[in-house]
């Protein structure tokens, strides 16, 4: 779990510190600060976001509680409702992102929706075309502009499989 979360947080541009007595080599090989020791409450100071992902459920509860009290965003890997942050399934293509969160623990649904959205995401060429059409429409006089934007809207909805 720590490995998956660390990869997600690094991809988001965060500085990641990992605190655990045992750290997987694949995790230690990432650009994270690895500290091989048990968690201590002082680890929360200076943190903006905390992930409690140990195999000790009572400890994850305590970390989540301490982080909440300190006003630090926290994800509880075993029981998301005890934390203040959930991790979504993310579909991404050419800069367009769609994140799916079920608001509960149903990762299979999140993944199924992510996969179905992924297949509908436009590619770079379509995005460039739509952006150019929108920019061109915005230079038109009011009536023509509205018609051009409506036509573009219909094309985009058709392309991503939405209702026209
Ligand atoms: C609450 C949440 C975490 C949070 O946000 O804090 C959570 C909780 C739990 N997941 C568990 C298991 C698995 N999770 C996955 C996969 C994903 N799990 C993800 C999200 C979330 N999982 C959040 C809710 C999301 C929502 O519903 O909206 C995804 C979307 C994103 C990500 O994690 O990166 C990613 C799919 C990414 C993708 O495909 O895009 C797999 C499959 C796999 O690993 O291949 C399994 C094994 C199969 C199974 O068990 O289903 C367990 C049991 C743990 C145990 O056994 O103890 C719990 C805890 C519990 O249920 O209590
Ligand atoms: N959200 C999700 O999708 C999933 C959540 N989980 C949950 O995540 C948690 C961890 O699961 P895994 O990563 O599979 O376990 P794991 O056993 O691979 O890793 C647990 C880590 O916790 C560390 N640890 C133990 N005591 C510690 C302490 N006192 N201080 C700091 N670190 C300590 C260990 O050194 C180890 O590195 C479990 O609570 C499990 O229920 C598990 C799988 C999927």
From TrEMBL:
Q: Which organism is it from?
A: Deinococcus gobiensis (strain DSM 21396 / JCM 16679 / CGMCC 1.7299 / I-0)
Q: What is the lineage of its organism?
A: Bacteria, Thermotogati, Deinococcota, Deinococci, Deinococcales
Superkingdom of the source? Answer: Bacteria
By its UniProt entry, which InterPro entries does this protein fall under? Met8-like, NAD(P)-bd_dom_sf, Sirohaem_synthase_N
E.C. number, please? 1.3.1.76
Q: What EC class is this?
A: oxidoreductase
GO MF entries: ferrochelatase activity; precorrin-2 dehydrogenase activity
Please list the reactions this protein catalyses.
precorrin-2 + NAD(+) = sirohydrochlorin + NADH + 2 H(+)
Q: May I ask which residue range the UniProt record assigns to the signal sequence?
A: none
Q: What is this protein called?
A: precorrin-2 dehydrogenase
């Amino acid at each position: 779990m720590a490995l998956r979360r660390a990869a997600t947080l690094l991809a988001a541009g965060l500085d990641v510190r990992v605190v655990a007595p045992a750290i997987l080599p694949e995790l230690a090989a990432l650009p994270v600060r690895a500290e091989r020791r048990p968690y201590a409450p002082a680890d929360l100071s200076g943190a903006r976001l905390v992930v409690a992902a140990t195999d000790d459920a009572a400890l994850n509860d305590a970390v989540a509680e301490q982080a909440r009290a300190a006003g630090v965003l926290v994800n509880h890997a075993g029981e998301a409702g005890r934390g203040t942050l959930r991790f979504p399934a993310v579909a991404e293509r050419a800069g367009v992102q769609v994140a799916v969160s079920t608001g509960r623990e149903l990762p299979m649904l999140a993944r199924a929706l992510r996969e179905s959205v992924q297949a509908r995401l436009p590619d770079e060429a379509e995005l460039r075309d739509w952006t150019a059409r929108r920019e061109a429409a915005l230079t038109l006089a009011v009536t023509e502009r509205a018609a051009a934007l409506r036509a573009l809207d219909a094309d985009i909805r058709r392309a991503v499989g939405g209702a026209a």
